[in-house]
Amino acid sequence: MSIPEVLPSGARGSRVTLRTIAETAGVHVSTVSRILNNQLGDSQHTASPETVDRVLTVAAELRYTPDPSAKSLRTRRSSHIGVLVPTLTDIVLATIYEGIEDAAERHGYSTYVTNSLDNPVRRERQTATMLARHPDAMIFGDADFHSDFLERQRRKGVLFCLVSRRAEGFLSATTDDYRGGQLAAEHLLNLGLIHAAVLAGKPFASTAIDRTAGFVDTFRNAGHPIPKQLILYGTFDTAGGREAMQSILAAGVNLNAVFATNDFAAIGAMGALRDAGLVAGADVAVIGYNDVPLSASLPIPLTSIYSAHNQMGQEAVELIVKLLNGEKPASVLLPPTLVARESTLGVTAARAAGYSRA
Amino acid sequence: MSIPEVLPSGARGSRVTLRTIAETAGVHVSTVSRILNNQLGDSQHTASPETVDRVLTVAAELRYTPDPSAKSLRTRRSSHIGVLVPTLTDIVLATIYEGIEDAAERHGYSTYVTNSLDNPVRRERQTATMLARHPDAMIFGDADFHSDFLERQRRKGVLFCLVSRRAEGFLSATTDDYRGGQLAAEHLLNLGLIHAAVLAGKPFASTAIDRTAGFVDTFRNAGHPIPKQLILYGTFDTAGGREAMQSILAAGVNLNAVFATNDFAAIGAMGALRDAGLVAGADVAVIGYNDVPLSASLPIPLTSIYSAHNQMGQEAVELIVKLLNGEKPASVLLPPTLVARESTLGVTAARAAGYSRA
DNA sequence: AGGGTATAGGCAATCGTTTGGCGATGTCAA
DNA sequence: TTGACATCGCCAAACGATTGCCTATACCCT
Known about the structure:
Chain A is an alpha/beta fold.
């Protein structure tokens, strides 16, 4: 009946090491190590079936788990992957990260994540902190299309790939955002809507750049070029989308469609429309991007471009694993699909002439 | 001009160790270690000011960063905190995690997070995986009010605290959810609305339990008890909230207010109201919980109960740090506040009699 | 019988850091 | 001069796992 000692660390009561196993099984610690690791293969160093059995049994009975620090110190591999995202509070990035985490676990890697808030200074600091933990590789979800950050990491010898956003000359797992923009544009054009505005998003994110380009190009090719002043850049969350839409409406332009490169901006736009006495999906078509779960169940369900974000995260890990195996994988580009809902489908042909406040 | 060697690990080009510094500075490695660690204190083992200077300079020049594995192996402390949440795709948990991460970094800890999806089997597996990484402590954000999971962790000697959800007899950092429920109820009663339904949420989460209790108690004490069949439990995201509201409306009950214990359920409820030809905030008051950023900018801005989630995460880390310092901290309870918006404020007294489909 | 060769497994160094215990040098007082 | 003490810093043993090298036994073939 001793007072239970206060352990300074996690579940450290047991402290079963290779030595414990070796002693109980009556073999050398190196033998245990070999058995536990090279279950199969390693023709050079075999153990007799009985020994293998015995060691395996003992290890299981004692609930042995290898010490990650010791293993990592010796092997020079941490089995860690560092992940940097703009913010985890964006459900899209959170979903991507869940995919990363699942795939990483499947491959025996653990991950840790931090957010850069798309702030260059913070990005440097967070990256330094992460690298100090010696990950085997990094995944960057916050690539700035125009920064030299990635180039510098590469030069340092950091192994990494990108996710969500791409950048010229770097390995990435993304969706075909240009195609997504096209899909949105085609959908609107099919509905006979030719007066569109674009809430384009962050001008340094390939997602915003590509989606906007796909959309704008398609409209132009259809003979309906979108005026420059109707393509707005900025950090568009719901509040931002609302404000941007307000400013467009205030300018009194002819308009019957809005394309936002993310759903939250689109929701904000719907709010601005309502304030102006217009009904999204009836007077003005609104189309978002990412198809977050929320969008389907909004009061006015939102038309959006779906991408497989969880899968994207998983693909990024597959790239990393291949990289770590010395392979030379190619970037992954997932296909987006359009999900049509009330926010565009309700706009009748009669309204196609466009709404103008002027 | 040699071909750059492909490094198997992070930024491992340099590989500056204590030995490197010791050799360049002409002292023993142990001296370097002591200087780098006990900048001050350790009366037993001092170094001359010149030596300290020299070593510090060399370390800085060589950009020395200690090897976490070696350090952890030797000291038996990982400086890691494991975090378990239901899901990171919930912006509330993501926000809490950001707070955790920031505070942890400030205290020299790094964190890793994983999600249990509120699935008991997965919870066990994820926890085992995390503990295998030997964290100094854990933070659980997915406490099940009725499970013995936490008790078992405690018995194993795992050091931990809870966040977001509380549980009897365990250290936690939460907001006063009962009070939050009260605030919601008082707000509605002040508006003269006495026919309310509750979308209560997960019956095993203290958040749902306490918020609902605070709300229901207040209505009862005001002389307007809420019928049992108008208190619905379940996993309420937007889609779930929509369905739940639909079923309530289908039952044709007298109703002029709805309290949802999270904003997304509330948004779903607004959708269901619209489908039924009702206007949230005009015919029926809708009040959510958490005040996620989205809520303020919805087409119909949502009244909600605000809690400081980022701060909550930080408080949880403070608790852990105290715990690791051998202190015996008390649980933290943050105060919620009500943010009134159009979704309730627009309901006129005239409507207070309540809407009934029957 | 002798040599060749698997087979099974032990030995010991090593990864980078921490830390208790000493030793060497210097200072000061008696 | 000698002893008492500080002061400064080295030595070496850990922490737990991995891995190249070595040895001992047994088996096989001619």
